[in-house]
Amino acid sequence: MFFKLFAKECGQMLKSLIYYLFLAAVVFFYVSQVGSFTPYSEPLKGQEESYGIKASSDKQQIMGATLALLAGEYEANSYTAYPVGFYKNVVLTKEKQEKIHQILMDCTGLEEGYTDAIRESSEEAPQTEDGSYIQIAGINPPLLPPAEDLSYDRFLRHMTKADKIIGGGSSYASDNVKNNAKTYATYEDAKKIYDASLYTDRISRGKARLFCDYMGIVLGLLPVFLAVTRTLRDKRSMAQEVIYARRASSVTIIAARYFSAMFLTIMPLFLLSLTPMLQCIYYGHQLGVSVDVLAFGKYILGWLLPETAFVLACGFFLSESVGGPAAILVQVVLWMVSISTGGTKLVGTVGWNLIPRFNNDQATDVWLSVFGQMVRNRLLYAGLALLFMAGTVFIYHMKRKGVLGGRGKNFIHRNRTL
Question: What distances in angstroms separate CA 317 from CA 22, 89, 151, 376, 399, one per listed residue?
């Protein structure tokens, strides 16, 4: 019974205009964002300051850059933060400003004159011919020298306190301070990244991560329209009585709808991934590198399938319980929050975000460091998808019995279970 209904649901969806609009949106996003295959460039020795930049590990530079940033925001009473993923300009009360001032005094030993101290330290930075200071993507940032007796641990405690005063999500959070100072990467750094992309990621894994990063953006929203459309189709055609009278259980009917929608959502991704996969195989053959030919399939199933499952399940549940427009509205809000949260850091942002970001086909060490978070994240959304679908089955069954406003009271086979 299930497979018969599954095939029928697939056939119905393949006749839907909404499904083809969904496909068009996915293909357009893939073509415009993923683009063509870009080979990895092996770094050459002797090209200093051309290997990119990295977060500085110099604690003095981190403290100096962070304190300069804090002093500048303090004097303007204008703090940048992302407390829930969205940009927020924070203006503090007089009392909270005094607390920030106390932190600056404890960290620098200065009661005032922060601008002059920053200017003096900046005079040592490289200058152009017109005397302006070179600032390249965080390289040579303005520095406010910390007090001589300030340890790095005490500095971090002060910055954590400042972050709480601002409201969280600022540049002073313990996970963010290390990004306030940058330095040039060395040849050894670049070579390590290149080798990891070829031999640890086996070329295709990094490309698969980039593919999933982009596809995850559209799959965090668009599948909800398929769920809502399927639920509304019965209402528009006034087919509830016929469906309610079927001998199939509620579990079978809802499962057939759900898995057919998931199947037709995921299958196009496998087809789209064929081109970059073949390009990876060709590129690996040219370099004599063994390519992971299953990489795209594994990442699609592990990364994108739980996300798609959650969005569809949420859509079906809300459509059955409160209506299609509410389902779309809720998913739009979730999508916006997820995108905004991930937008603050495009590489290695996982946490509990519905749309984790990893907009880099290299950075293997970063991926390995967040892999455990990614597994927990995807398991969470897979579990939530199961809960939503269980709720959908329950609501649908109650409608078939006529308990929740459904008109199946006179038609349902009462002796059948869920």
Answer: 20, 37, 53, 23, 13
pLDDT digits (tens, 9 = 90+) for 144-171: 989 999 999 999 999 999 999 999 888 8
Among the listed residues 292, 46, 51, the one whose alpha carbon sits nearest the alpha carbon of residue 194: 51
Determine whether 299 is exposed, middle or buried from the number of CB atoms within 10 Å of its CB (0-12, 13-18, 19+). buried
CA dist 284 and 311 (Å) reads 36
Q: How far apart are CA 316 and CA 225, in angstroms?
A: 10
Model confidence pLDDT, tens digit, residues 81-116: 877 555 688 999 999 999 999 999 999 998 888 887
Q: How far apart are CA 186 and CA 53, in angstroms?
A: 9
CA angle 382, 387, 389 (to 5 degrees): 95
The domain locations on the chain are 2-42+201-400, 53-184
Q: Give 59-81 as a 3 state SS string.
A: HHHHHHHHHHHHHHHHHHCCEEE
d(CA 16, CA 10): 10
**Residue/partner pairs of 83-91 with CB below 8 Å, 24 or more apart:** 83/167, 83/168, 83/169, 84/169, 84/337, 84/340, 84/341, 85/169, 85/337, 85/338, 85/340, 85/341, 85/342, 85/343, 85/344, 86/337, 86/340, 87/340, 88/167, 88/169, 90/166, 90/167, 90/170
Indicate whether 240 pLDDT > 60.
no
DSSP label of 133: B
More confident residue, 68 or 399: 68
